[in-house]
Amino acid sequence: MMHKYKNSEAKNCLIDKHIAFIGDSRIRQLFYSFIKLINPQVKEEGNKHGNIPFEDKSASIKVDFLWYPEVNGSMRQHIKSWTEAAMAKPHIIVAGAATWSIKIHNGSNEALAQYKINITSIAPLLEKLAKSSDVYWVLQDPVYEDMLSESRKMITNEKIDAYNEAAVRILNSSSRNSKAKVKVFSVSKLIAQETIMKSSDGLHLPESSRETNAMILMNVYCNKILKPIDGSCCQPQPPLTLIQKLAFCFFTLSIIGYLIINLIHRNNYRKNKSCTDLENGEEKKPAISTPTVSTLEMLLHSFCKLGLIMTYFYLCDRANLFMKENKFYTHSSFFIPIIYILVLGVFYTENTKETKVLNREQTDEWKGWMQLVILIYHISGASTFLPVYMHIRVLVAAYLFQTGYGHFSYFWIKGDFGVYRVCQVLFRLNFLVVVLCIVMDRPYQFYYFVPLVTIWFMIIYVTLAVWPQIVQKKANGNCFWHFGLLLKLICLLICIYFLSYSQGAFEKIFSFWPLSKCFELNGNVYEWWFRWKLDRYVVFHGMLFAFIYLALQKHQVLSEGKGDPLFSNRVSNVLLFISVVCFLTYSVWASSCKNKTDCNELHPSVSVVQILAFILIRNIPGYVRSVYSSFFAWFGKISLELFICQYHIWLAADTKGILVLIPGYPVLNVMVSTFIFVCVAHEISQITNDLAQIVVPKDNPALLKRLLCIAGFFSGLLLFSAIQDQSRH
């Protein structure tokens, strides 16, 4: 993966540095492309066959081009002066030449022999410089022979290959005898093989290829200094933190513990196995008993599986084991998979167990197809296409809408505000993310969606749980309570409105320790404020929709029988027509967006239009409401795990790129990585469910003990995190 350096980043990396480019016209091209990364306003002026200086005084950066078109005594003398000079040597040296030697000597074998002698004499000097500087030897790019002028016809790809082969052999031979190493910059040659036919003269690369070469050179040097997430080249593997080491020890002990218990059980099973009666040859069978799995064994089994899965996570996205590649968006890479999964989803259509609006199977189906679309959006890099981005924003809003709808419905109908319910929800939402924060050394806010749904769940809980607690059972006895609930919702809306337009107040709330440890990203809570603000009203809309729907259902306004339209035929047809028009109108508006910032400002207020339109289209016709896609519903049940796991084992470099398990076969790579990714997400969902039963028991005294243990765990985590931060600084 290649990080695209901005000029501010380039200056930050190269501050107080001296860079020297020494060679022919091709090196001069690379020089100009390189300094344009520092100052885009630079123009290619001056004597083409002479030295060209460049200096950026604001960052004290000095870049020189030195005209030495042949590898000869003159070039050697200048390089030797660097090794002998008392003054500071260049921090980066980029050298290369050959085409002039081929041209001047008409491609003779004698010239090649002399080139070998000259580069052999230069190699030890370059090795000496490489001890204190970064030295790169640029291999010669191929030429497009059909476009070469008559004076350059002797420069053939066969000759260039011979010169490159000689340079590589001599430099590698020299490196074997030295600890320092001259880096052979061969990527330019590979790029030229694909793009040289676009050259204006058959010899020099087109501008886009030169820019890529310069960007790669910047990545090679600067990635190890600035450590950008999306620059996978030339970075050392990050050292294990104290918390990561402790996690590794914990998972190792869990695996060992589970294996010991498993061996003991196997040994006991063999002892109890039926044995042959030696006297009559009859087999005595012991009483059949079903082995019970102890809580400890289930706990160790879950942590054993989780430890192996987390090892895979670490190897994929923290160890330099697998390659990563940049995303490149095309319409076909996004829309063809979308069509494919929609066909699959329709193929697996089944009847629902119940025909209520937004029944369990329907919401699982809704989550499933939305999650699959979001996954395709991420892997295809479709965020660069604004109409797709705006529609994906609606899907994220729809998840939060379901959060408001689902939790409000539960509290309103059940009236269960107990600690057990709260702990179960918080554990299921946050377990995987907490483990990943520890193993992958990432802040909680990095997995922004989980903090978002967690905070909104707590807001819904507090809104409904504070005095007076208004639930359906109480409200049915007196209509006055309905107005009381609406008053609570209005107060919530006012608070949301105030916080969305008071960034200072919002940041003060979430900047208090220890909340700041959860919601800061890159040293501030701006990202958290932006994410929260982007869908600030949609959870409220979900709560309001649930209230209105349950009120209509209670008064038997809706017809939810199998195959029956939701309202009378006339009303159903009118509402269906309005819903389709609203749905399409939103899509037209989203597709006409020109500016992401302006559209994001409108999104919180208008996203509910398409969400409500979809709900009505999906539920008004009786037949449509009575069926669901089991294919989408299966993915919907593990949608949270899919969303989180994609960060590290499907995508890579924290979602900036794509994980490459099988280089050179992109389709096969996506198939294999997707299969593993889905299996892992499903397994983590099972582990979370198993651990939730153990960690969050229904018995209140046991639950209190668990909560004290969890509080101790997070206190220890905060302590170790503080020690880590201190050691880093």
UniProtKB/TrEMBL annotation:
UniProt keyword annotation of Glycoprotein present: yes
Record-linked Pfam families: Cas1_AcylT (PF07779)
Domain spans labelled Cas1p 10 TM acyl transferase: 227-707
Membrane topology qualifier: Multi-pass membrane protein
Residues annotated as signal peptide: none
Transmembrane region(s): 246-264, 328-348, 368-389, 396-413, 419-439, 446-468, 480-499, 534-552, 572-590, 632-653, 665-684, 704-723
Record keywords: Glycoprotein, Membrane, Transferase, Transmembrane, Transmembrane helix
Name of the protein in question: N-acetylneuraminate 9-O-acetyltransferase isoform X2
Organism: Apteryx mantelli
